[in-house]
Amino acid sequence: MEIGFTKYHGLGNDFILVDNRLSTEPELTPEQAIKLCDRHFGVGADGVIFALPGQDDTDYTMRIFNSDGSEPEMCGNGIRCLARFIADLENTTQPGSYRIHTLAGIMTPQLEPSGMVTVDMGEPRLLAAEIPTTLGQPDCKVISHPLEIADITWKVTCVSMGNPHCITFVEDVATIPLEVLGPQFETHPSFPKKINTEFIQVVRPDYLKMRVWERGAGITLACGTGACASLVAAVLNGHSDRRVTIELPGGCLQIEWAASNNHLYMTGPAEKVFDGKVKV
């Protein structure tokens, strides 16, 4: 069959968006998504996102398959792209917001007059059982906990943004051999559902640099949930303010952890690349 799609990216974290509003299940299988995400034999993307009908009093439902066919609970850059895609489907250029049902809960992206998208990412989850991780006791936070990988003892902080993250602070993110360390973190037995891993360099209390290995996608140019989790980890370790700019290889995100309601707010771009049709 032939399927229409639109490709978007958020700071280089790129996605194939599919209009799936006529069905409550994704129109593609994980195996088909793998083929589409292939950068040599397919369209090329970090994942395929489906815009499905809303449920539980939401406007739309978001489902996503990673480039390896796995299904994450949420994707920060992806939901910004989804919001822009929905606005294009509705043929509106007006600022507005959507309530999106995800496997991590209800998210509310807001289209800003500037063209940026701000997403209320909800509250971080900090207990080991919520991550999940076997580091520490299930009902305790995992902050600056030792973890041995590649003969190095890393001090890691774990945060869930509906999906699991492991954050460690380093002197210079540019020197980290991400392609070597990323898979070892992702599949470490301390993380029963695998893990997204962020390496963070503190430039100033209001400015962080980040590189990321995403569970199911590998090295990506940006990760929205990872940026949110990294700010939480930086605050918990006394490294940063509650409102920061996070520089990723694909560009910058503005992240705020609001003291008033404990919610994370992420602001960044979502840009259309092209429309297309492909046989699957």
Question: Can you describe what's shown?
Answer:
- This protein is of the alpha+beta class and 280 residues long.
- The chain folds into two domains: 2-116 and 269-279, Diaminopimelate Epimerase, Chain A, domain 1 (Roll); 128-262, Diaminopimelate Epimerase, Chain A, domain 1, CATH 3.10.310.10.
- The chain contains four helices and 18 strands.
- The protein has helices spanning 30-37, 76-89, 178-186, 224-236; strands spanning 2-10, 13-19, 47-53, 60-66, 96-97, 100-102, 105-111, 117-122, 145-149, 152-160, 164-169, 196-204, 207-214, 218-220, 243-248, 251-257, 264-268, 271-279.
- It has an 18-stranded mixed β-sheet that branches.
- The longest helix is centred in the N-terminal third of the chain and has 14 residues, at 76-89.
- The radius of gyration is 18 Å and the shape is globular.
- The N and C termini lie close together (6 Å).
- The model has no long low-confidence stretch (mean pLDDT 97).
Task: For this entry, give a set of tags.
280 residues; alpha+beta; Diaminopimelate Epimerase, Chain A, domain 1; 2 domains; 18-stranded mixed β-sheet; 4 helices
